[in-house]
């Protein structure tokens, strides 16, 4: 398993672009479509819970692994 190290500094412009809300349509990093069910935070940081269209259940994603669909 490979650890991913991201910058710890806050970047307000990027943070504003990556905000998700419940009900947003999203595409995952592996091109699966779904809806945002919940936005939550743990000791590591923010994560997004999405329900995908083709797979049953809910899946947690790093905000950088999702793209909002307009």
Main attributes of the structure:
single chain; 70 residues; five-stranded antiparallel beta sheet
Explain what you see.
The chain is mainly β and 70 residues long. It has a domain at 24-68. The protein has one helix at 12-17, and strands at 25-28, 33-41, 46-52, 58-61, 66-68. Strands 4-3-2-1-5 form a five-stranded antiparallel sheet, with no helix packed on it. Strand 3 (46-52) and strand 4 form a beta hairpin. The longest helix has 6 residues, at 12-17. Mean pLDDT is 82; it is low at 10-17.
Structural class based on helices, strands and sheet pairing: mainly beta
Low-confidence parts, pLDDT < 50 over ≥5 residues?
Answer: 10-17
Helix content: under 10%
Q: Helices and strands, in N-to-C order? A: HEEEEE
User: Could you tell me the radius of gyration in angstroms?
Assistant: 12 Å
Count helical runs.
1
Name the overall outline.
globular
Neighbour order of strands in the largest sheet: 4-3-2-1-5
- pLDDT averaged residue by residue: 82
Largest sheet: 5 strands, antiparallel
Q: β content, as a range?
A: 35-45%
Straight-line N-to-C gap = 34 Å
Number of strands: 5
């Amino acid at each position: 398993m490979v650890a991913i190290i991201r910058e710890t500094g806050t970047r307000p412009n990027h943070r504003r672009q990556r905000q998700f809300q419940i009900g947003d349509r999203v595409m995952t990093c592996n091109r699966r479509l779904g809806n945002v069910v919940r936005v939550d935070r743990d000791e590591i940081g923010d994560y997004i819970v999405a329900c995908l269209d083709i797979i049953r259940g809910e899946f947690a994603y790093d905000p950088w692994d999702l793209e909002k669909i307009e």
